[in-house]
Amino acid sequence: MKILVTVKRVPDPETQLKINADGTGFVTDNVKWVVNPFDEIAIEEGLRLKEKHAGSEVVLVSIGPKAAQEQLRTGLAMGADRAILVLTDDNLEPLAVARVLQKLVEQEKPELVLMGKQAVDYDNNCAGQMLAELLGWPQATFASKVELADGKATVTREVDGGLETLSFALPAVVTADLRLNEPRYASLPGIMKARKKELKEIPVADLGVDIAPRVKIIKLEAPPKRAAGRKVGSVQELVKVLHEEAKVI
Question: In this structure, are residues 155 and 143 in contact, taking their beta carbons and an 8 Å threshold?
Fold first, then answer.
């Protein structure tokens, strides 16, 4: 079995980002970059499935600048077999990401594509769904449990009402939620081995994919600061404020 896992390079969630001068993006100087946390969970799940199914291969895929090698090496150090980096300095929209991944899936022919449910930078949460539609494959999003057997996947996913279990034939696309697993740390031997593992680079232009943007960011603004709270003298006054000012009751 071949498992393709996506890896996105994102700013560390602990980093305090600043909006650039023209308000169309973020200042990226001196920003620490990491593997998207949901993608890290997807990597871990791919590795666990590999351990359960002998002879399986975990292939990592990232789309981004050459510096994204660092995040791919992190996944290789965790235990993935090889990696592919599609080189571009552009910040691709989800549909363009899905089209690039579609090309790679057609080349690699995996039985399963694992993705984080969303990236923590733009929180779009739609590349996985778009990829499944382009491929015509079944999909399961927000997965909290994944089991493979007899050419089928059984996925427990989180929905508003609780848990939902889906069963479908492979190949398929599955996106990982937080409760799917706890990612492992890369061991020192794993880090050493990662240096020798294959990391193939492909310029995005070589894939012949339309990556032209369809959305233009006009302006980004930081959310307004919260107003200071105030004390009230009685329950009656609190109810009045909630009713007349906050208008929540």
Answer: yes
Beta bridge partners of 154: 147, 167
Give me Rg for the CA atoms of the chain: 21
Whether residue 35 contacts residue 75, with contact meaning beta carbons closer than 8 Å, is answered with yes
Q: How far apart, in whole angstroms, are the C-alpha atoms of residue 168 and residue 153?
A: 6
The span from the CA of 122 to the CA of 201, in Å, is: 25
Which two three-digit tokens encode residue 90?
Answer: 């552009």
Q: Which pLDDT belongs to residue 249?
A: 85
The two three-digit tokens of residue 40, written as one number = 């890290």
pLDDT of residue 230 exceeding 90, the answer is no
Give the pLDDT mean for 222-248.
Answer: 87
d(CA 215, CA 31) in angstroms, rounded, equals 25
Domains of the chain: 2-246 (3.40.50.620)
- Give pLDDT tens digits for 163-196: 999 999 999 999 999 999 999 999 999 999 999 9
Distances, alpha carbon 104 to alpha carbons 16, 108, 157, 204, in Å: 34, 6, 26, 11
Name 7's Cβ contacts closer than 8 Å, sequence gap at least 6.
35, 36, 39, 43, 60, 61, 62, 68, 71, 72, 75, 83
